[in-house]
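Sanity check. The docking grid for zinc ion depends on where the pocket ends up, so I'm generating a full predicted complex first rather than guessing from homology. Inputs follow.
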Amino acid sequence: MNYCLDVHTHTVASGHAYSTMLEMVASAKEKGLGLLGITEHAPSMPGTTNKIYFENLKVVSRQMGELKLLLGVELNILDYQGNIDLDDYLLDRLDVAIASLHGPCIAPGSIEENTAAVIGAMKNKRVNIIGHPDDGAYPLDYEQVVKVAKETNTILEVNNNSLSPNTFRQNTRENATTMLKLCKQYEVPVIVGSDAHIATDVGLHQNAQEVFDACDFPEHLILNRSVDVFLEALKKKTLL
Ligand SMILES: [Zn+2]
Ligand SMILES: [Zn+2]
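Predicted complex below; grid placement will be based on this.
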């Protein structure tokens, strides 16, 4: 399968990433992507950027030659109700919003609490994607997560970075496999995100591809295969 897009990446603005926006764009073009999403960590992540950064993204062109650029955010899920850390006014001005559980922002709870946190975020019409739901530090009831993803048209991520051998996350391969089997059963689409924190990692998907191959995951449920299909999937959420 040809991977045409990557919508989960970070630049120096996130505080612990190492490339600029234009370096990320250059890398995406070099790799032949049709669409790049840059999703900086939202303000509750220590060391990241501030609200004014997100507000001012209007100054950046969303078309960089052949490459379509989406500028968004990786929100922090803050509690077991699924509240997130950027207000609706700003979210309405961004192109894409990923919501994730991160150690510095929420303590791992019970499986019921973690699942409620993710479901709460999915019920927010401004949240398009759940980032790295494979993280074993936050055990989830994947059957519930996949069912609510289908009901709310929220996209579940297969995080390529989580699946790399040097990840700090636990049980990612097992968790991603469990989730993918359910996505296959319930016909729920997924997206591969590189979660690149340096330009050279933009568009990487090999670890995710290995897991897809291992569970014979159908290509028509992988949104990276077409820019148009992905943009359609994004719109479904906002219409809810
Ligand atoms: Zn994250
Ligand atoms: Zn990230």
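Relevant for the grid: The first strand starts at residue 5 and ends at 6.
Also worth noting: The chain has one domain: 5-238.
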